[in-house]
Specification:
Elements lengths: L1 H7 L1 H26 L3 H22 L13 H7 L1 H18 L13 H34 L4 H17 L11 H25 L2 H15 L1 H6 L4 H6 L9 H11 L2 H9 L7 H30 L2 H10 L1
Helix pairs in contact: 1-2, 2-3, 2-6, 3-6, 5-9, 5-14, 6-7, 6-9, 7-8, 8-9, 8-12
């Protein structure tokens, strides 16, 4: 019945799935909050409960093979998702450099081991659940609606599922987040959704985008999960319009991932790899660049958090 409904009313099906997901998650979070106090534990339990319903919907709509579909190769997937892997690494390194040490350069105490484990599981839970909804169900519905056998269809799928992904983040206002912060997060999430959608169409691996999503959330919320420095709602409440300055980079990466030669791969569901020499050169160059960038970010964020180091260095120099 659900399969026939989504075939006849694809856009309506997408909206219904998202609404059902949000309702189940919010209700289960309320119930979990009556028993649990730790925010990430509440999130984890809510996600697990919601996943049961989402998996039923996934199979009932005829997309059960989305979880078993093989990727187009580990190296191909890593290369396609390289930007998001790097963003997650930068967030992890910068947050660690900012919060791992106190003002007097002592190692900051970690949260209890059990809470850290729950935090890590919750990050994977968020990645699993949100990708199950928006790439596993919504994107596959849109692929049938618009057909990824054409350039127009590919871009329509990417934009529509990305906007729907971003729009659902407005519900964070129910957690007390202000309108400006919620709007900023929604716009950022829309571009993130488009990027994840492009990676999913390229690799065909739902598990890979789940892991990418989880990795980026882990890096973004590391300070809260490892050092209890901020709450999830508190982190989002700090978002201002200035956060959108990085969106052109996201857009550029999306367009690079969907360049003509790669759109051909999506249409034909095949890979047309470059020569081995080009692959090796690209791999070595990107590795050197990424390692150097990580070191630079770690040093700069540590100095930013401990500005007195710079002052002492300047005093000694002059």
């Amino acid at each position: 019945m659900l399969k026939k409904f989504r075939e006849k009313f694809p856009i309506c099906s997408c909206i219904v799935v998202i609404v059902v997901y949000l309702l189940i998650f919010q209700l289960s979070a309320i119930v979990a909050g009556m028993v649990l106090k730790q925010i990430f534990a509440i999130q984890l339990v809510s996600m697990l409960f919601t996943d049961v319903f989402l998996l039923v919907i996934l199979w009932a709509m005829g997309f059960g093979n989305a979880l078993t579909q093989k990727s187009k190769g580990v190296l191909y997937s890593l290369g396609t998702g390289g930007y998001m892997l790097m963003v997650g690494a930068l967030a992890t390194v910068s947050n660690f450099a900012m919060y791992a040490f106190t003002e007097d350069y002592k190692i900051r105490p970690l949260a209890p081991a059990g809470e850290i484990v729950i935090f890590i599981l919750a990050m994977f839970g968020i990645g699993f659940t949100e990708e199950l909804v928006f790439r596993g169900i919504v994107t596959n519905i849109l692929k049938e609606k618009f057909s990824v056998r054409t350039d127009r269809g590919i871009f329509l799928v990417i934009v529509v599922q990305g906007v729907l992904f971003g729009g659902c983040h407005m519900t964070n206002m129910l957690s007390g987040i202000g309108l400006e912060s919620a709007l900023v997060q929604s716009v950022m999430a829309s571009f993130l959704g488009m990027l994840l959608g492009a990676i999913y169409l390229r690799t065909g691996s739902l598990w890979f985008v789940m892991l990418l999503h989880a990795w980026n959330d882990f890096g973004a919320l590391l300070a809260s999960g490892f050092f209890k420095m901020n709450t999830l709602a508190g982190s989002i409440s700090e978002y201002t319009w200035g956060k959108l300055v990085g969106l052109p980079v996201y857009l550029a990466v999306i367009l690079i991932l969907l360049r003509p030669s790669k759109r051909r791969e999506i249409k034909d569901d095949m890979i047309y790899p470059p020569t081995l020499g080009i692959q090796i050169a690209k791999g070595v160059g990107l590795t050197i660049f990424c390692v150097g960038l990580l070191i630079l970010v770690a040093v700069s964020m540590f100095i930013t958090a401990h500005s007195d180091i710079t002052e002492k260095m300047l005093e000694g120099y002059f």
